[in-house]
What we know:
- Pfam families: FCD, GntR.
- This is GntR family transcriptional regulator.
- Keywords: DNA-binding, Transcription, Transcription regulation.
- About 60% of the residues lie in helices and about 5% in strands.
- The chain is built from nine helices and three strands; from the N terminus they run H-E-H-H-E-E-H-H-H-H-H-H.
- Strands 1-3-2 form a three-stranded antiparallel beta sheet.
- Helix 5 packs antiparallel against helix 6.
- It starts with about 25 loop residues before the first helix and ends in a 6-residue tail after the last helix.
Amino acid sequence: xxxxxxxxxxxxxxxxxxxxxxxxxxxxxxRGQVLAALRHALVGGELTPGEVYSAPAxxxxxxVSATPVREAMQQLAxxxxxxxxxxxxxxxxxxxxxxxxxLAEVRGMLEVPAIVRLARALAPERWExxxxxxxxxxxxxxxxxxxxxxxxxxxxxxxxxxxxGNRRLTEVAGDLLRRTQWPAGGSRLRTAELLADASEHTAxxxxxxxQEYAVVERIxxxxxxxxxxxx
Length: 231
């Protein structure tokens, strides 16, 4: 992923994962495991915004080659989580309050109208399919598990948008949410704030099942448009 053939590891900070995975994961799953571990570290604050990390150093810690690490880093760069630093590795991006507000505005423009249309188009029982995802988010929030909640939050919103049948909308909405989940200058929500966020999923489903359309729109707008991330 980095340009050039040499990487100056002394200027990049090595990171030792809190709970490293298997030393020699199967080849077909290496990239996915590395990507999942990096997501976990980013959302959990183990990788510090502004710091530069070396791909070879991370690869050594995982017991893999640098190739799957670079591939995972490339995907994360596309999601706005990291920035490429030529010949050094990657820097964890810092998302400003303005950027978070802009992301929230775009999410509101896309997701709220879609949810309102779905509210009138789907039978109430269809919304019960999303209950397990909402419950998983509440459980993670109650534990103060920011990483677990970020994944549950993402799964809930992707499942919700997938009901539109529009794959592009689902992909874009999922990407926008990912971008709000990366650390903003190291800020992190408290457990009470995670629970408040998670409870809105349940409240939204309740309103959808009850076919209370005005309430649905209000909750959706407040939830999707609120720039309260990252987790």
